[in-house]
Prior knowledge:
Elements lengths: L6 E2 L2 E2 L1 E6 L3 E4 L6 E6 L3 H9 L5 H8 L6 E4 L3 E11 L7 E11 L2 E6 L15 H8 L1
Parallel strand pairs: 5-9
Antiparallel strand pairs: 1-2, 3-4, 3-5, 6-7, 7-8, 8-9
Amino acid sequence: MLPIGKNIGGIIMLKIFKSFGGYIEINHAEKNCWINVLQPSATEIVRLHEEFNVPHEIIQDILDVDERPRVEFDDDWSLVIFRIPVSNLNNGVPFFTVPLGIFMNEKITVTLCSIENEVLPFNQPSIYREKFKTRMM
């Protein structure tokens, strides 16, 4: 098994969560977990393919900034790619859009995006996460 993601400036770029009324980060993938990936490294792309069975062409499509929204179904998986707004304060345009992919099979759900965004905040994937962690303690 490959290590749990890459650490860039203290931020892990591949995180695995399990739902218990909210989302709690876990160390290893298990059935019905959610794997949230942001700006994947080459190692993480290999891991997505080899460990989680996400086809290479799907990963590349999601990471292509010009990819069009679509829905695909295969015998073993489903895919939704849509475009989400990302803040842009550099050139007077308030936002631009990038692809966000949701890959699902009977064991896992993977979300993948090439850029940090507010649709799936990387450090706080659920508004219920902190509330749930407090109840657990």
